What we know:
Layout: H1 2-9, H2 14-31, H3 40-57, H4 61-83, H5 88-115, H6 121-146, E1 154-156, E2 159-161, H7 166-177, E3 185-187, H8 190-216
Antiparallel strand pairs: 1-2, 1-3
Helix pairs in contact: 2-3, 2-6, 3-4, 3-5, 4-5, 5-6, 6-7, 6-8
Amino acid sequence: xxxxxxxxxxxxxxxxxxxxxxxxxxxxxxxxxxxxxxxxxxxxxxxxxxxxxxxxxxxxxxxxxxxxxxxxxxxxxxxxxxxxxxxxxxxxxxxxxxxxxxxxxxxxxxxxxxxxxxxxxxxxxxxxxxxxxxxxxxxxxxxxxxxxxxxxxxxxxxxxxxxxxxxxxxxxxxxxxxxxxxxxxxxxxxxxxxxxxxxxxxxxxxxxxxxxxxxxxxxxxxxxx
Length: 225
């Protein structure tokens, strides 16, 4: 535990590690939008970066152990999914495990940015930005998990169909989270429409709560050095 705290204290902006990784994922997802799924090496990098970010943001050893207990099966399921991409159960299990990992990391970000004492103001703000991005990633995985249950559940320029890859679900998730509503991909199934409304509400409420928290913390930051 002492060694864990020592490593954390030597990194002044811990949340920047997570933010940089999330921006890399968004960039590579946009680049790979035409080619389909991202490569196996990038999946391994993403999970490794998530694990390291969680290691930095979680303060209690029990949380770190629980986080790794989800991350390792998620990596194994991702490898199996790449080996047998036609197996529906592996696709579902891999997406579900990654969604659970991101949900737990989101909890870590909220605890770090809103409740943890001794955190620099800039680090707190960057962590809050990471939390907003993680919401988009989490909902993207959630759509991927529910996709088999809603065949042809989305209306696109090509007609009614399912979203075929992670780039499309990620794009739809962030367009919905930010309430842009371009309309090039829209939910056609009533349940998917309801989920999209919930995601838009989550994004709006998150910004309102986070900004109000920052306003309440105006003044000298006790965690600054």
